[in-house]
Here is the input.
Amino acid sequence: MTLLKRLGGRAAVTAGITEEFLRLSAVPHPSRHEEAVSSLMLDRLREMGLAPVRDPWYNVRAEVPASPGLEDRPLLALQGHLDMVCAAAPGFDPLRDSVRARVSGGALRSDGRSSLGADNMLGNAAVIWLLGRPLQHGPLRLLFTAAEEVGLEGAARMDPAWLDGAAALLNTDGFYLGRAVVGAAGGRRETYRRPLRTRPAPAGEPVQLTLSGGIGGHSGDDIHRGRANAAVLMGRLLEALRTALPAFSLAALEAGQTHNAIPGAAAAQVLLPPGGGASLDALAARFRAELTEEFSRTDPGLVLRWSPAPAPEQVWDTPCRDGTIDLLRDLFCGVYAMRTDFPGVVGASANLGRVSAAEGTVQVCAFLRCARAGDEAVLAARHDGAAAAAGFTLAGCTGYPGWPGPADNPLVRCMDRVFRRETGRALDITAVHVGLEPSIFAAQRPALPMVVSGPDILDAHALSERAPLAGLPDYALLLAGTMEAYASGT
Ligand SMILES: [Zn+2]
Here is the structure.
C-alpha cells in the first residue's frame, strides 16, 4: 500500500492537519507569551500517550518511542517553534485574542484581524497529526521552542542536552514546499550611541530634507535587491552638503524603524548659513538626478524633496554632526559576500537600519548577517572601528551564530529521495540569508545533520498570511516518508 493510501488519501491528510492546526492555535501565542500554548501542546502530547517535559522558558520536549522492531534505529529530532509574529488589526489584542483561522479560496487564512501563525504551527500540526498515523518510524524526539521570532531566544536557552543522542534534526519552519534549507546566516544586532550635544541655533535658512517612497524591506531576504537604503543616502546627502557648505548645521535626523529592516524613508532638518539656499538647490537637484539614475529600476518610487522649515531653537554641535555623518558613511551596508557553495545566495551582509536622536543621545542601529564567523568578525571590527572614530560606542550587541552548512548531509539526501519517490520532483536544496534555529544548534552540535523544510506559507507575519492547502499532502508525504526512510535506511 502506498504511503498516501496509508495516510488516508489527500483529502484526509489536508483535513487532519488543518484540524490539528486549529486545535494547536486555539490560544494566543505571540512571542514571549508561550505559557498557554506550551500547556496546550503538553496536554496534546500527553493525550498521545507521551511524557513531555517543559523548561522554564516554555520550550517543550517529548520522546516518541520507535515502532516495534525499530528501537535501535538512529534518533531523528523533529523541531518547530510555538510562538508567532502576531500582526494585529485595530481592536485585536495579540495577548488576549486567539487567531480565528478558516479555509477559504483553497488556503488556510485568518479572519483578517491577525496574522495566521502558520509560521510555524502548521509544521508542528503536520508532525503531530502524522504521529497518529500507522507509520513505521525509529525513535523520534519532538522539540517545540518558544520565542523564535524574537532572535531565536527559546532555542538559545534550550538545554543543549536536549540534542543528546539525536542523529539528525528536521526543522519544519520553512515557507516553500519542496525547498530544503541546509544553511543559514548568523545575526549581530548592533546599537551604537553617542551623546547628543546641542547649541543655540545661529541665524540661517532652515530646510527640511526628506527621502521617501523607498520600498524598504527585510534586511536578510531583500538585501541583494538593490533597493535604496534611505539612512545611507541621507548620510551621503549630508556629507555632500558638508563639503559644499561647511558651516551648515544639523537640527534633526531620523531614518528607519529597526535594526533588521531596510529604511525606505529618512528626514533631516538642516540650517544653512545665510545665502546658502542656492547651493543647496543645486546640490539637491544633482543628488536627485543621481538617485533617479541609480534606482530607476530597483526602487523607482524613491523621491528627494526639500523645502523651507520652521527655525530650530537648537542645532547639533559640530563634533556630533560630523561624527554622525562619518558613521553613516563608514558603516558597511549591503551585500558583503556571496556564498560559494550555493550560487546566488548572499553569504554576508550588513544593514543600516535606524538613525535617531532623542533625549540627549544619537543612536545608530545596524544588523550583520553572516553564514561564516570570519566574515562577521571582519564586518564587526570595521563597524566598531568606524564607530570609535566617530565618537560612538557600542551600547548594545546581541545575536546568534551562523549555520554554514555543509551543503550536503545524510538527512537532506534521505529527504530528497523521499520527495522524488512521493511527488516525482527533486527537492530544491539551498541555504538562506536569514537566521533559523539550526544556527543555534549548529554552534552546539557542529556535526549534527539538519534540514529546514516547511509547507507553503505566504505573507508570513502579515494580516494576509495564508497557507495554500493544495501542497499540504505532499508536505505530509515528505515528513512521513522521511520518518520511515530514516529508520529503514532507504
Ligand atoms: Zn518561523
